[in-house]
Design goal:
single chain; alpha/beta; five-stranded parallel sheet; 9 helices; about 35% helix
């Protein structure tokens, strides 16, 4: 089981996205636990402000360190108490800041993160967060791509989804993620369902043959061909050659 603690200014957004479909069911079955924490609740300002102007000038506002740190302290205490109740005295924890400066999230990183007990995810907003909070509590910065978003909430949801599906009990069978987590990183082969013919295009004959070895060979060939065409960067050197 993994517990995800998401520190955000928009907890309802996070809870809504992660409360549906597979991840929502995984929470109900206790395969994972997702908690969204509103950083504003930990502001010491009477107006619950969490941002301020940056030193040195510049456009926009910056998320201040104190509310984030207060939230972090509360989250770690809550998580420690949760794991203690579960009979776990030592918690393998990792703190992530969703940031365009971070390493790009990929399947290998998701697999790595799936081995932690507790992932605490900080969602930035405005022009970012005070560097001192990053230096003090963050273990790793992660990005979902080379583009700029309005906040870290959607990236955090993507990270939770990609990691959660690797947790035992989240998907219906191991094959659901083992077949997609190819060590070399190929794209998935084309798939078909009924009807047999759609808009003049029929399902490939090999899939109707019942010959499992031929079907498997066809799928592997299709996966390699598709990856070479769309994402050659994912292929092993031998396959590129």
């Amino acid at each position: 089981m993994i517990r995800f603690d998401i520190m955000t200014l928009f907890p309802d957004l996070v809870s809504f996205v992660l409360g549906e479909s597979v991840i929502g069911r995984a929470q109900k079955s206790a395969a994972i636990k997702v908690c969204a924490h509103n950083i504003r609740d930990y502001s010491e300002d009477k107006h619950r402000r969490v941002d301020d102007t940056p030193y040195g000038g510049g456009m926009g506002m910056l998320m201040a360190a104190p509310p984030i740190y207060n939230c972090y302290e509360a989250v770690t205490k809550e998580a420690d108490a949760f794991f203690l109740e579960e009979g776990k005295e030592s918690v393998h924890r990792h703190v992530i800041f969703m940031s365009p400066k971070g390493k790009i999230l990929d399947q290998k990183k998701a697999e790595e993160l799936s081995h932690y007990d507790n992932l605490i995810i900080l969602c930035g907003h405005y022009e970012g967060v005070d560097q001192r909070i990053i230096d003090e509590i963050v273990d790793e910065e992660i990005s979902i791509g080379n583009y700029v978003l309005t906040g870290g909430e959607i990236p955090a949801c993507i990270l939770v989804d990609s990691v959660s599906r690797l947790v035992p009990g989240v998907l219906s069978a191991d094959e659901c993620y083992e077949s997609e987590s190819i060590a070399c990183g190929m794209l998935e082969y084309p798939q078909y369902t009924r009807p047999l013919e759609f808009h003049g295009v029929k399902v490939p004959d090999v899939l109707l043959s019942g010959h499992h070895a031929n079907i498997e060979k066809w799928r592997e060939e299709q996966a390699v061909a598709l990856t070479k065409k769309l994402r050659p960067d994912l292929l092993c050197k031998e396959e590129k050659d």
